[in-house]
């Protein structure tokens, strides 16, 4: 009848019906038999494996066990108390216990470098935005390799990691993920009080926990972005800027589109997280473009082209600078060799940021990054870079020799 049934938290345990059916099992729901199966696709993910490396090059699996009177060199954790938060009233003050490996920081790796041998470097998936995270880490590690950044002392590295750990532990959901005492208390409370707001992912207080968690995830990146001179900045470790806050809204909106689906809704048999009722609230960080509604139910879509999937997006009446436009434009200016001044492009069909023409010492840039109406952007070049008949094919605008600030008209 066209409906899709989702079996959550089931594990495929055996095959039946001469290979045409499967048996799936759940710890809570028991066993179910699914017949007339054509294809089984395993989405298993992966586990990192470093067995090929010498043990001296491999980080430890866990933080030391922080039990009573066992803090050794981690004395600063001894008297630590979690700041008051939205879960304090029901969980109280819980002392630190055993800390499993938090995803966002490791006790023996300093900013991607193994502390006992900094020549051994690791890319770590620390946040919910792994591609951006790894790109930033690449810039940071390159800065260390080239000598633009210097390693601090081992004591300073330890302090950096501990302060990062404790900054995360100010957030209940971050601490719950990797600290034994707190996690056990929370899970025990959640089982006994199923009607508590923290168990209702659609409750605004639960959503705020998600926002705080994602805010911390992105603040983790800011120090590396600053020290590596990454092309764009989203704020500081203490506070995100407008770009960073826009990023939080996008990521949390995407999360809630999944977690807040109502299984008792009349449209639950077909609605997926892609069938967003109001997709325009999702705004691309890269382009400023707002998401367009699907032409029909996601499960009923046919074809692969944009025109077959979404309705047309109406251009905005004015150019709205998106959070990362300035960084993109800076990269274009830095890497593009200016061609003959007579060559022009249609910014609506060519590259996201195209040079239209140059006139004396003014360079006009057509900006269509967010599929909005074409707007010319004037950038004044230093006199040494003014195009002439002899140098128009070889001028490179370097990063430190351009001004593409948001205020430029």
SSE topology:
Layout: E1 11-16, E2 21-26, E3 30-34, H1 88-91, E4 109-110, E5 113-114, H2 130-145, H3 154-168, H4 172-178, H5 180-192, H6 204-227, H7 242-259, H8 306-309, H9 325-335, E6 353-359, E7 362-367, E8 375-380
Helix pairs in contact: 2-6, 4-5, 6-7
**What is the 3D form?**
globular
Radius of gyration: 26 Å
Termini separation comes to 57 Å
Mean pLDDT: 74
Give the beta-strand count.
8
Give a summary of the structure in a few sentences:
27% of the residues lie in helices and 10% in strands. The protein has 9 helices and 8 strands. Helix 4 (172-178) crosses helix 5 (180-192).
What does it look like?
The chain is an alpha+beta fold and 409 residues long. It has nine helices and eight strands. The strands form three sheets. The protein has a three-stranded antiparallel beta sheet with strand order 1-2-3, with no helix packed on it. Strands 6-7-8 form a three-stranded antiparallel beta sheet, with helices on one face. Helix 4 (172-178) packs across helix 5 (180-192) and helix 6 (204-227) crosses helix 7. Mean pLDDT is 74; it is low at 67-71 and 315-409.
């Amino acid at each position: 009848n066209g409906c899709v049934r989702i079996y959550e938290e089931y594990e495929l345990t055996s095959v039946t019906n001469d290979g045409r059916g499967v048996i799936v099992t759940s710890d809570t729901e028991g066993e179910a038999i699914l017949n007339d199966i054509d294809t089984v696709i395993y989405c298993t993910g992966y586990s990192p494996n470093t067995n090929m490396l010498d043990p001296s090059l491999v980080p430890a699996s866990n933080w030391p066990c922080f039990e009573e009177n066992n803090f050794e060199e981690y004395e600063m954790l001894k008297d630590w108390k979690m700041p008051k938060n939205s879960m304090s009233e029901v969980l109280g003050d819980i002392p630190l216990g055993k800390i499993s490996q938090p995803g966002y920081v490791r006790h023996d790796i300093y900013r991607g470098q193994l502390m006992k041998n900094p020549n051994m470097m690791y890319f770590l998936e620390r946040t919910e935005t792994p591609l951006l995270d790894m790109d930033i880490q690449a810039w940071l590690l390159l800065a260390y390799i080239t000598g633009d950044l210097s390693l601090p002392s081992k004591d300073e590295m330890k302090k950096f990691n501990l302060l990062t750990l404790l900054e995360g532990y100010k957030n209940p959901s971050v601490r719950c993920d990797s600290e034994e005492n707190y996690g056990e208390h929370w899970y025990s409370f959640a089982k006994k009080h199923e009607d508590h707001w923290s168990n209702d992912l659609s409750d605004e207080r639960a959503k705020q926990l998600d926002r705080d968690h994602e805010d911390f995830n992105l603040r983790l990146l800011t120090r590396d972005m600053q020290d590596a001179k990454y092309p764009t900045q989203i704020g500081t470790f203490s506070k995100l800027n407008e770009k960073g806050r826009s990023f939080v809204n996008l990521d949390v909106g995407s999360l809630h589109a999944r977690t807040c689906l109502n299984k008792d809704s009349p449209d639950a048999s077909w609605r997926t997280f892609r069938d967003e009722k109001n997709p325009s609230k999702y705004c691309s960080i890269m382009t400023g473009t707002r998401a367009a509604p699907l032409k029909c139910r996601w499960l009923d879509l046919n074809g692969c082209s944009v025109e077959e999937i979404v309705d047309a997006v109406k251009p905005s009446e004015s150019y709205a600078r998106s959070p990362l436009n300035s960084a993109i434009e800076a990269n274009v200016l830095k890497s593009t060799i200016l061609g003959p001044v007579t060559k022009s492009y249609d910014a609506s069909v060519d590259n996201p940021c195209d040079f239209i023409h140059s006139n004396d010492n003014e360079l006009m840039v057509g900006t269509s990054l967010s599929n909005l109406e074409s707007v010319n952007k004037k950038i004044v070049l230093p006199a040494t870079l003014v195009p002439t008949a002899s140098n128009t094919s070889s001028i490179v605008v370097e990063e430190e020799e351009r001004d593409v600030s948001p205020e430029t008209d």
